[in-house]
Amino acid sequence: MSRVIGIALTCLAAAAFGSLRPDDNSPDGIWISRSAVSNLPVVGPAWEHVLSASRQPCTSPQLNDQNNATNVCVLAKALICARTGDFRLREEVIDVLRRTVDAGRYQGRALALGRELAAYVIAADLVQLQEHDPALDVAFRVAIRDLLTAPTIDGPENLVACHEQRPNNWGAHCGASRAAVAAYLGDTATLQRVAEVFRASRLPSPRDGRGRESSWFDCSGVLPGGLDGMRAAPYTRLANIDVLSSTWRPPPSGPASAVHQYACAPR
């Protein structure tokens, strides 16, 4: 699910949230609106897949473990809560978010943080944390803002630097989490910067204005630098949801990397 959230969040958030006020969530959601979720069907294998995940107990969140599945668990619970109004799932999500806030200083790689963080931010928005636990929401906002520049090891110095410097798998995930945090906080300046970096990463030229290799994200299917020579997917898949038509979808599959699957979303 960390891969499924991926870089589509980066471009969608950067494009959609220019009107957000500082420290104010969009009434329609930072990523997918609660009204859109409420119209999704409650039958079929994709629904059952998310529902099954929501019924599992969530382990302790570990943002420094890129394979930790708690983000999958908490996002599944938040999605089902938003669809059904199950207050017990909301309380479970809030409990995990509280443990995330109480986790202390981050110690790990930027890639792990990028892969893990976005799901918690989206979950907080879906369960309307600001409304149901205002005190925790204040602490959560402080924590996620601090995580943007928390020192990281074995690579870029923090999540923002990872997004700015790595036009690859690392930068894609870091950019997705950076966009999610900025959208939740109503930080329009950062969202604009996320959009700028994302567009630069998709340039067809060998290097962009900062001298970075940028052929990773060619989605045309014709340029030699594009991954696998594949064309962009016709729609964006996130957390088993087709965002554009608002229907549950099976998880994407195929040989393309996470970067290619989710960076090549419609502009």
Strand content: under 5%
Structural class: mainly alpha
Gyration radius, in Å: 17 Å
From the spread of the alpha carbons, the general shape counts as: globular
Taking the alpha carbons of the first and last residues, their distance comes to 22 Å
Helix and strand sequence: HHHHHHHHHHHHEEEH
Major β-sheet profile: 3 strands, antiparallel
Helicity level: 40-55%
Number of helices: 13
In round numbers, the mean pLDDT is: 75
Instruction: Give the low-confidence spans.
Output: 1-26, 205-257
What's the arrangement of secondary structure elements?
Elements: H1 2-5, H2 8-16, H3 34-38, H4 45-54, H5 70-84, H6 87-101, H7 110-126, H8 129-132, H9 134-148, H10 159-165, H11 169-185, H12 188-201, E1 237-238, E2 241-242, E3 247-248, H13 258-263
Antiparallel strand pairs: 1-2, 2-3
Helix pairs in contact: 2-11, 2-12, 4-5, 5-6, 5-7, 6-9, 7-11, 9-11, 10-11, 11-12
